[in-house]
Each structure stands twice: as structure tokens, then as C-alpha cells.
Amino acid sequence: MDKMRLLTPGPTPLPEEVRLTLAMDMVHHRKPGFTALLGEIQKDLQWLFETSQPVISLASSGSGAMTAAVTNLFKKGDQVLIIEGGKFGERWGNIASTYGIDTGIISVPWGKPITIGHIETALRQYPKVKGILVQASETSTGVLHPIKEIAEYLREKDILLVVDGISAVGISPLPMDKWGIDCLLTGSQKGLMLPPGLSFISLSERAWKRVEENRPREFYFNLLGERDKILKNSQTLFTPPINLLMGLHTCLGLFRQQGMENVFRRQWALTQMVRTAATAMGLTLLAEDHYTWGLTSIKLPEGVDGQAVLSCCAERYGIILAGGQDSLKGRIVRFGHMGHVDYGDVLAGIMALMHSIAACDGEVKTDNVLEQAMAAYEKASDEGYPEDFA
Ligand SMILES: *Cc1c(COP(=O)(O)O)cnc(C)c1O
């Protein structure tokens, strides 16, 4: 049996150090040893988010933190703008509607980023907007939205910028305080190289003021309560997922050892590697200029059954890739390269994809593809990522 390689945009493979930590026995979460660990984790999370504000850990998948953002920052009847350029943009809309929040939707074609022009037009149509809800990286399409520009545009306005960074934090730069993001959140199973089950959320000073004014009726996702616990004695309101937090401590230690610049550099280089390979195969990329660094969406040749390609990759080569969702179902492959993935995994993934498309009667070039991919990886590793990519 071949080794299975998980190249999906979440969950992602676990480093051995993290797996060993996860296997450890339980400790008690209110005792000094664990409180000290939570204190260290808090410092590391603030370092990761690049913020001076507390970062709250919640026992939930990423959508739990999205829900917490909506219910704590907005009240029934408030108006928000949703940037909807994919599945996860839609999720913002679904969560907000569930809580009776009035949603203005800006639809962006799947594969394209939002522009400031779009936002300006929408704000004329929806003048009472209290927040803009967006993905840093739209995982269903592989697009990177221009968060830095949006934050600059909103700086002087009384509108909160709420960013789902689930497939961006720990993958590409997203400095919360420097850019002026009001709410940044992520999950454990993508860039953070952990199993699913933890989410993280941090708020700016003005976002906290909004929560204090709102006095949200929240029992479990009670961000004010969680903040008080952190500030008082590094604790959590409820029993936390103890082993996941121990794994997180290990993962953040690995990030510290490497330095985030180097983590981002590798993610960038892997992205260049997959994009070069797809082009060399004669295939088209879904996200053209503004692309995320954790996955690459590749359009399949006309008439090729995407599901058959994915099955072939898995069965013949042990390579697990993701497909498209909704209107993109069967038409694209989403090649994940986030977290604990290296050039060797990606090389195997490219080879499997190339041969699987050919096996499904798709037209694909195979000459020199792996060499070109490897050359792109080495070049991008040497040169590093562009400073102004957003
Ligand atoms: C994975 C993902 C989610 C969903 O997270 P869950 O952990 O499945 O709740 C939301 N937004 C983005 C951008 C994601 O990549």
C-alpha cells in the first residue's frame, strides 16, 4: 500500500511532534501546570495573529468562531455587507441571516477577488452598514481577497472589518494590528497543522467596544467572558480540548523555531510550484492574479469527470485532493499545499494529477512538468515572496 498523502485544503497532515503531543495523557485544566501552558499559548497566539489583543480559543470548528464573531459584534436588525465570492462567503451570509442580521450581499464571480470599487458602490446602496464580513482566502476558489486595501479603505469609517482567516492564518501574512483588522479568526485544521476542533478569534479595541455596547446574550460563545478569564488567570470559561491545546503549543513552537517569514516563504514557493505545474500541463488556473498560498484551484479539461480524476489519484497513487463545490463540482481540482506539506508531497501530487487526468482521457501535457515545477519551487524559495501581494 502506498503512503497516503493528504493534499486537501483542510484537514492537513500533522507533524510527528504534534502527533506525539496529542497522544499524551490528560492533565487537569484548572491546575497550575496547564494554566502556565495556556499563558504561553496566549503569547504565541498573539505573536501569530500579530496583535496586542487577547486571542480567544474556542472548542469548535472554524464556523463556530465565525458564529461567535457575528453574534458578539452585531445585533438583530444591524446591517452588514457580505463579500460572497464562494462557498465560505455564502456561509457568512447564512450565519448572519440566522441571527436576524440584515445582509447586503456583494456577489463576486467565483475565482475573482473583491475590489474597493465594488465596496464603494455597495456602501452607497447600504448606508447603514456596521460591518464587512469577508474571507482572507476563499478556500472554495483559491482567491485571496485584498484585506490590507479593504482595511485601509475602512480605517476612517465606523465599519468593522471581520476577516475569516481560516485558510490564511499561518499560511500568508495577515498582520492584524498593522493592517487594522477588527476581527480575525481561524481554525485548527488548516495552516496550524492540528486536527479539527479548535478555533481562534481576536478583536480590535473598537470591536471590543462594540461588544461591550451590544451586551450579547451568548452563553457558550461569550467573548467578553472568555476575555475576562484570559486576563484574570489565563483560563477558559469551559473545559477546553486539553490535548488539542497541548498540540497547539507544540505547533506554535515549531512556527517559532522556523520564524513565520520562512513559513510564508515555503507556502509561497509551494504555490509557485503547483501553479507552474498546472500551466506546464496546459491547464488553466481558476484564480488568476489574487491567489491564496495554501491551495491551488486547477480547471480540468472539458469533458473530464473530476470525480474520476480524484478517485484515480487516491486509488493509484495515494494522493488525496479535493474537488470543486456547487457550480464547480467535477470541474476543478483543489490542490492543497498548506501546513505540514513539502516539495516532495507536492511533486508526488503533481505526478498523480497529471497521470490521472491522462487516465481519464483528458488532454494534458506531461513533458518536463515535474522539472519545471521543481525549478519554480527553487526559484521562489531563493527569491522569497513579494512584499505587496495583497
Ligand atoms: C475550512 C473553512 C471554513 C470552515 O471551517 P470549519 O472548520 O469546517 O467550520 C470556513 N472558512 C474558510 C475560509 C475555510 O477555509
TrEMBL record:
Pfam families: Aminotran_5. Transmembrane segments: none annotated. Gene3D superfamilies: Aspartate Aminotransferase, domain 1, Type I PLP-dependent aspartate aminotransferase-like (Major domain). Belongs to the class-V pyridoxal-phosphate-dependent aminotransferase family. The keyword Ribonucleoprotein does not apply. Substrate binds at residue 334. GO terms for molecular function: alanine-glyoxylate transaminase activity; L-serine-pyruvate transaminase activity. The modification N6-(pyridoxal phosphate)lysine is found at residue 190. Residues 25-328 form the Aminotransferase class V domain. GO terms for biological process: glycine biosynthetic process, by transamination of glyoxylate. InterPro entries: Aminotrans_V_dom (IPR000192), Aminotrans_V_PyrdxlP_BS (IPR020578), PyrdxlP-dep_Trfase (IPR015424), PyrdxlP-dep_Trfase_major (IPR015421), PyrdxlP-dep_Trfase_small (IPR015422), SP_NH2Trfase/AEP_transaminase (IPR024169). This is Aspartate aminotransferase. Its cofactor is pyridoxal 5'-phosphate. It comes from Desulfobaculum bizertense DSM 18034. It comes from the Bacteria. Keywords: Aminotransferase, Pyridoxal phosphate, Transferase.
